[in-house]
Specification:
With 214 residues, this protein is an alpha/beta fold. The protein folds into three domains: 66 residues, Histidine-containing Protein, Chain: A; 66 residues, Fe-S cluster assembly (FSCA) (GMP Synthetase, Chain A, domain 3), CATH 3.30.300; 65 residues, GMP Synthetase, Chain A, domain 3, CATH 3.30.300.130. The protein has six helices and twelve strands. Helix 5 packs antiparallel against helix 6.
Amino acid sequence: MDDITVRRHVLDELDYAPMIDAAQVGVTVENGIVTLCGHVRTYAERGIAERVTRRVRGVRAVIEQIEVRAPGEPLVGDEALAERCAQVLAWDTRIPERAITLKVEKGCVTLEGCVPHYHQKAAVDQALRRLAGVTDIVNLIAVKPPVSPTEVRNRIAAALRRSTKDPDTIRVHVDGDRVILDGCVDVWSEREIAERAAWSAPGVRAVEDHLTLA
């Protein structure tokens, strides 16, 4: 597919997404590599624009250069924004109390700390991305497993037995905080189930999916 067609499809897909103002997003394409520029109202919209672009056929990579601007809203100072972020994290029951520290500089929120589950690290990002004034999020939170690799593997295997037709065709290997899935599945939906089971295990920071369709 040529770059002109890819650009047109990306623009159409952005315009089709109801969550963002596509009129403020610029798109260029070179050899299938899409560069997004312009501005959006929130950090969440910025992430949506990138995800929408990645799902377009013919897109090989995305360079995201979108700025976050909040027209018509008063500028939020770093100190006030840090206080807002701290309150949001304190109210979120998914996030362990006092597990996260944060720093705000020109609207960019840097997160550090340690949580036992990957979904808790993702929850911090989700909790802050829609806050007015947040221009970027740097998530440096570590995920450290409270259980042994054997227990991680057993938990994933148990989840597969509950959710898949033939769990014995899926082999699970645990290497530190990395899970490797191989073997075969009958339908692609079972591959997604296996990935979700791996990511849900405590302490998992990376999942390599080598599953094939039988």
